[in-house]
Amino acid sequence: MSAARLRDPEHLYDGAALRALEAAATQQLGGDAFELMRRAGQAAWRELLRRWPQAQRIVVACGPGNNGGDGYVLARHAFDSGRDVCVVRLEAHAPRGGLAQRACEAYRDGGGRIERYDGALPAADVLVDALFGIGLSRAPDEPCGALIEAINAAPVPVLALDAPSGIDADSGSAPGRAIRAAATLQFIAAHAGLYTGDALDHVGALSLASLDVPGDVLAQVKPVAGCLRAEDLPTRFRPRPRNSHKGHSGHVLCIGGDAGKGGAVMLAAEAALRCGAGLVSVATRAAHVAALLARRPEAMVQAVESATVLPPLFRRADVLAVGPGLGEGEWGAALHAAALACGKPLVLDADALNLLARNAQSPPAGTVLTPHPGEAARLLGISGSEVQANRFAAAHLLCACFGCAVVLKGAGSVVAAPGELPQVIAAGNPGLAVGGTGDVLTGCVAALRAQGFSAFDAAATGALLHAVAGDLAAQAGGERGLLPSDLFEPLRRLVNP
């Protein structure tokens, strides 16, 4: 199985790009910015009707800016359709811009009701969050936070317009209190921050209203990332030639498994086999050889008590997967140093990343790093919370520091490499948050690398493959109790579309 032509991913944009798109679209409309607001409010009303057609009581929480203006337009449509509608707002949230004022006046002049929020929300079947959208990148102040908490506490679904208020639509972080929506309708183009990190617990079901902005306008602005979904996976593989042999599919050498950690390197080795590597070797402690051969006789397991015996194994391998169960002691450090010096393509995970953070040795070109946020923090010399506050920035910084492809694992894994458009993995589930799943990812990426994928494509495809396999495994038995080894059967199916 070799690399296929890759389908272009869905594009994601940051706030600056979205504002540029809005300005370009307004110019194409002859300068009529209110037309975009009118379209946004109408699209939001249609989305509400599509999701909750029986809703009769609708409460719209409006902020002072254009997001609030979108909410007023929605409220006017709901009111004109005969629904019981109420706009609630904080005393300080009277419309400030001309567009929002115009939308508010149209709603009020048509007979719409506006109430000042006094600590209690009117009864509703659906709540609409039109407080800030993408316009807020800091923690909400106390009055706003109290309103957000009241909305979250209401026993009804919430529709967020453009972005859940309190979520940074560029980074995906929640610096303070934030709306937890049942659904979020994005306007014009997809927002990068809504696909990773904290945002995934707040956006609910994501959808997009283009507001009829034409493709040539979108082409004027560069995206900041792409988004890979399960449906993108089949396009990344093609059938093997009928006269293939094992040498055509690459040889992966997995290095790890210090005392008591043999399972980690075996998970990586079996994942490499299930993802199509033609040959898989394992260099590990002698104590693990018998157990590993009993578990997976297809792997060629070598007892390695000293780095001096590694060179012949290096020569036979195409790619090295280093780190699962490696440990950070003298044995692991010696094997790690030898692997980095051998000149072969590397996939580094777990203890190999911690050793990389501790030592000054640089990985060779073509290396793939697969850190979780804690490992990324150690590599960068910052805190884990700083990594999570802006996962895109952390991934970019790792690329800049090490010159490697990077899979920053977590909710909405971010894959980056020098000179490449970063990719966000829109798959995976909390069941993957268990020890050993990272070792499986290491094997996935190494197997693809051995089969001819570039470092970046192996990282992106391997991360997507791993996440989708996790989703299929969770569908079969639930997220809690999911084991890393549960991914092996779906991995095999997924690489054979």
UniProtKB/TrEMBL annotation:
<feature type="domain" description="YjeF C-terminal">
    <location>
        <begin position="229"/>
        <end position="497"/>
    </location>
</feature>
<dbReference type="InterPro" id="IPR017953">
    <property type="entry name" value="Carbohydrate_kinase_pred_CS"/>
</dbReference>
<dbReference type="InterPro" id="IPR029056">
    <property type="entry name" value="Ribokinase-like"/>
</dbReference>
<dbReference type="Pfam" id="PF03853">
    <property type="entry name" value="YjeF_N"/>
</dbReference>
<keyword id="KW-0630">Potassium</keyword>
<feature type="domain" description="YjeF N-terminal">
    <location>
        <begin position="18"/>
        <end position="219"/>
    </location>
</feature>
<keyword id="KW-0479">Metal-binding</keyword>
<feature type="binding site">
    <location>
        <begin position="66"/>
        <end position="70"/>
    </location>
    <ligand>
        <name>(6S)-NADPHX</name>
    </ligand>
</feature>
<keyword id="KW-0456">Lyase</keyword>
<feature type="binding site">
    <location>
        <position position="165"/>
    </location>
    <ligand>
        <name>K(+)</name>
    </ligand>
</feature>
<keyword id="KW-0511">Multifunctional enzyme</keyword>
<feature type="binding site">
    <location>
        <begin position="409"/>
        <end position="413"/>
    </location>
    <ligand>
        <name>AMP</name>
    </ligand>
</feature>
<comment type="subunit">
    <text>Homotetramer.</text>
</comment>
<feature type="binding site">
    <location>
        <position position="67"/>
    </location>
    <ligand>
        <name>K(+)</name>
    </ligand>
</feature>
<feature type="binding site">
    <location>
        <position position="438"/>
    </location>
    <ligand>
        <name>AMP</name>
    </ligand>
</feature>
<feature type="binding site">
    <location>
        <begin position="133"/>
        <end position="139"/>
    </location>
    <ligand>
        <name>(6S)-NADPHX</name>
    </ligand>
</feature>
<feature type="binding site">
    <location>
        <position position="129"/>
    </location>
    <ligand>
        <name>K(+)</name>
    </ligand>
</feature>
<comment type="similarity">
    <text>Belongs to the NnrD/CARKD family.</text>
</comment>
<protein>
    <recommendedName>
        <fullName>Bifunctional NAD(P)H-hydrate repair enzyme</fullName>
        <ecNumber>4.2.1.136</ecNumber>
        <ecNumber>5.1.99.6</ecNumber>
    </recommendedName>
</protein>
<dbReference type="InterPro" id="IPR000631">
    <property type="entry name" value="CARKD"/>
</dbReference>
<dbReference type="Pfam" id="PF01256">
    <property type="entry name" value="Carb_kinase"/>
</dbReference>
<feature type="binding site">
    <location>
        <position position="264"/>
    </location>
    <ligand>
        <name>(6S)-NADPHX</name>
    </ligand>
</feature>
<comment type="similarity">
    <text>Belongs to the NnrE/AIBP family.</text>
</comment>
<keyword id="KW-0547">Nucleotide-binding</keyword>
<dbReference type="InterPro" id="IPR004443">
    <property type="entry name" value="YjeF_N_dom"/>
</dbReference>
<feature type="binding site">
    <location>
        <position position="372"/>
    </location>
    <ligand>
        <name>(6S)-NADPHX</name>
    </ligand>
</feature>
<keyword id="KW-0520">NAD</keyword>
<feature type="binding site">
    <location>
        <position position="439"/>
    </location>
    <ligand>
        <name>(6S)-NADPHX</name>
    </ligand>
</feature>
<keyword id="KW-0521">NADP</keyword>
<dbReference type="InterPro" id="IPR036652">
    <property type="entry name" value="YjeF_N_dom_sf"/>
</dbReference>
<feature type="binding site">
    <location>
        <position position="325"/>
    </location>
    <ligand>
        <name>(6S)-NADPHX</name>
    </ligand>
</feature>
<keyword id="KW-0413">Isomerase</keyword>
<keyword id="KW-0067">ATP-binding</keyword>
<dbReference type="InterPro" id="IPR030677">
    <property type="entry name" value="Nnr"/>
</dbReference>
<comment type="function">
    <text>Catalyzes the epimerization of the S- and R-forms of NAD(P)HX, a damaged form of NAD(P)H that is a result of enzymatic or heat-dependent hydration. This is a prerequisite for the S-specific NAD(P)H-hydrate dehydratase to allow the repair of both epimers of NAD(P)HX.</text>
</comment>
<feature type="binding site">
    <location>
        <position position="162"/>
    </location>
    <ligand>
        <name>(6S)-NADPHX</name>
    </ligand>
</feature>
<comment type="function">
    <text>Catalyzes the dehydration of the S-form of NAD(P)HX at the expense of ADP, which is converted to AMP. Together with NAD(P)HX epimerase, which catalyzes the epimerization of the S- and R-forms, the enzyme allows the repair of both epimers of NAD(P)HX, a damaged form of NAD(P)H that is a result of enzymatic or heat-dependent hydration.</text>
</comment>
